[in-house]
Here is the input.
Amino acid sequence: MSWVTVIWSIGSGGCLTLTVIYFAVWWNNRAERANLVFALLAIAVASFAALELTVLRARTPEQLGVLVRWLHVPAWVMIASLVVFVRLYLRAGRRWLGWTVVGLRTLSLVLNFLLSPNINFRQITAVQRIPFLGETVSLPKGVPNPWMAVAQFSLLLLVIFVADAAITVWRRGDRREALVIGGSTLFFVVLSMADGVAIAWGLISMPPTVSLFYQGLVAAMAYELSYDVLHARALARRLRSSETGLREPGNLISPRDGSGSRTKFVSSFNSRPKVRLPTATSRSVCIPGIARRAMR
Here is the structure.
């Protein structure tokens, strides 16, 4: 098996695994919609990588034209998912700018299927075979289509949208999220955009490797999400321990006193009634939600 196949397959497999994991996480706590959006992003990146690998194996201009056209479908899902994820997870980003990014990307997707062979090329004239990672892969050669600037402009607006959201989160005090989510998104999206633009306009002669950058982005996001899950569990354990301590004799008086008032927790200041605290078993308490607020 070649290195190209190994690298692209491992990346796709990792993204598919994360899709299953975070879909299950969302299923258990459907209030955390960012996990569902992340699962959609991961499966879109896996699909994009699979199509990109097929492009590297194509033999005819017709095959390349069709494959490049269908690459824009998972690309649309990736861009839209990033916008929604930033809005949900970071709770930042200008709504109108996010809608503009998605709208432009949707327009480019429509143009992609209206134009022949796709939005990237007016005509694919040949298949160039070049060495890459110790083997020979395919690269489309032809006349660039100026309409692809619409898709590329949507990526530029995506960078502005994420940068604005990251600055907002940083000023809010959530610097870890600003660096891990905002910083990694900017880093990998800018690199992938530079790579894609240079290849599409014929500035460099190398095979497309856009999916590799998005796989790195998925890995960074998965790290941050797993950090949240682990700390949510730690907080849940601390809450259960606190609840157990409060239930011990001497810490909790009877559920109702003589006047019929509700249960009150008491401390050394017996004369001051305390408001009942929510417990980990209360239906109105969402442990991951408490953890999220506690960490911010």
Observations:
- The first strand starts at residue 121 and ends at 132.
